[in-house]
Amino acid sequence: MSDAAKLKQYRNDAKLAKERPDNVKYLHNSGKGLSERVVKEISYMKNEPDWMLQIRLRAYQTFLKKPTPRWGGDLSGIDYNDLYYYMKPTDKVANDWKDVPKEIRNTYNKLGIPQAEQKYLTGVMAQYESEAVYHSLEEKMEKIGVIFTDMDTALKKYPDLVKKYFSTVVPAGDNKFSALNTAVWSGGSFVYIPEGVRVDFPLQAYFRINAEKAGQFERTLIIAEPGSFVHYVEGCTAPQYASASLHCAVVEILVKPSARVRYTTVQNWSKNVYNLVTKRTFVYEEGTMEWVDGNLGSKLTMKYPSVFLLGRKAKGDILSVAFAGKGQHQDAGGKAIHGAPETSSTIISKSVSRDGGRTTYRGMVKVPKGIHDVKSNVVCDALILDEHSRSDTYPIMDIRESRVNIGHEASVGKVGEEQLFYLMSRGLSESEAMSMIVSGFIEPIAKELPVEYAVELNRLIQLSMEGSVG
User: Fold this and answer.
1) pLDDT of residue 441
2) Which terminus in the chain has less CB density within 10 A, N or C?
């Protein structure tokens, strides 16, 4: 099959998966609106221990008290009483792809789940609405103590581990949306890597919002014991509706001494989704955390992966790419908080806006007094493709120690007529030339992705440039 034919097939599959919701009958639906009754109902349906119910109830009260942030994107379109907070699509998590309900399986077939599993047999988890519907982990990984399952199963099988680490990195009171997630969380991934164990293939998770006015509130918790390594990859999608849906996730990661974790996201929510995510990691002595964050879809994204460098020689890298088209605002970036000497961080942000889209870089580097010999470098580059689009930069550099090496650079550019003329003189259309320029612009991010996901990111960029996605 030619590249053009492959792109056409990919376009058709992507549009079908995004635009056509599947006719799924839910085993349970909490109904619209949020209340203490709904919080209790979620916990009851999951047969949770009382300590988790109490965490939920306290978080719900915190959510009610916390104000809606006014410093980011426009959140006025969220009607919390017009959302479904818990929708259960199946009564079990399948370990064999054939056991997933047919309607759900068809959706994921369009999104490439079986092909991904054939490529990387280490582990795959798929979540549909509020619950995981499929999970697979290679047997030899289980034998050496690796745990990769959905959070609901982890709470039942490993309650002591969940209780020890849950809400320790991102407490419910951190912000309004972390409180909401803690109150109504459902699904998400639980990953535990034993000391000294290296998982050499990515663990993969796929999240799908299918219903109109649905909320998805997955909770992901990753614990990497000393000297271990894991790469976790997630993808996200939803069909297009006229009314808004809400994706409000929390990701907590603990990187123990000399461990390394890489967390990769390729997000392609449809343009009716508010994507409000809190992602944070604690990194201890000589540990390394790498965030690779791709944001293409959603009506509004507010997401700032953070590293708290708490041990000497801890390292954190944040690579972020955002693409905003018509009706989109990508408010993204990263935060590096240096809490120990000799720590280092890098934040690289690339953003593209077109057709009136808006991108925002929002970042922070913080070095308290006495935290010496710190190195940090921030680079944020924006590409604006027309006169109707916009890009903003809000960097915070809170440096209170003189014995540090801190760098910051930013650039905003437009596609030059000479670039377009040169490429079009070589036989490319204007759309193809623009796509090539944008692909080159985001190349520093794409090259950090696994090959399968780098190809997907570039294809999604091409589709977005043609106005075919969303």
Assistant:
1) 79
2) N
**Which pLDDT value is given to residue 122?**
44
HSE at residue 420, side-chain half, CA atoms within 13 A, is 10
CA distance 444 to 447: 6
Asked if 265 contacts 234 with a C-beta cutoff of 8 angstroms, the reply is yes
Write down the H helix ranges in 46-186: 50-65, 102-111, 113-119, 139-143, 151-157, 159-165, 176-184
SS3 category, 395 = strand
Q: What is the pTM of this model?
A: 0.85
How many angstroms separate the Cα of 168 from the Cα of each of 5, 229, 282, 316, 456?
49, 21, 10, 19, 34
Closest CA to 317 of 334, 340, 304: 334
- Six-digit token pair at 111? 């999104």
Both tokens of 44, joined, read 């009851």
Contact yes or no for 230/261 (Cβ under 8 A)? yes
Q: List all residues 6 or more positions away from 238 whose beta carbon is below 8 Å from its beta carbon.
A: 18, 208, 209, 210, 245, 247, 269, 270, 272, 273, 297
Rounded to the nearest 10°, the torsion over CA 457, 459, 462, 463 is -100
Q: Cβ distance 399 to 406 under 8 Å?
A: yes
User: For 103-139, b where at least 16 C-beta lie within 10 A, e where not — what string?
Assistant: ebbebbebbbbeebbeebebbbbbbbbbbbbbbbbee
**What contacts 28, CB < 8 A, 6 or more positions away?**
45, 86, 87, 88
**Taking all residues of the chain, what is their mean pLDDT, rounded to a whole number?**
82
Q: Mean pLDDT of successive 10-residue segments in the chain (470 residues)? A: 47 44 53 92 93 98 95 92 78 55 54 47 51 56 86 94 98 97 93 95 72 78 98 70 78 98 86 93 98 89 97 96 92 97 96 93 97 97 91 95 94 76 77 77 74 68 56
**Long-range contacts (CB closer than 8 Å, 24 or more residues apart) made by 103-107:** 103/22, 103/23, 103/24, 104/22, 104/24, 104/128, 104/133, 106/22, 107/17, 107/22, 107/208, 107/210
Give 233-269 pLDDT, tens digit per residue: 887 664 454 457 899 999 999 999 999 999 998 787 7
**pLDDT for 364:** 97
Residue whose tokens read 């039942």: 156
Helix (H) or strand (E) holding 255, with range, is strand 250-255
Q: What are phi and psi of 326, to 5 degrees?
A: -55, 130
> 77 Cβ partners below 8 Å, 6+ apart?
244, 274, 299
Question: In the chain, what are the domain boundaries?
Answer: 3-303, 417-470
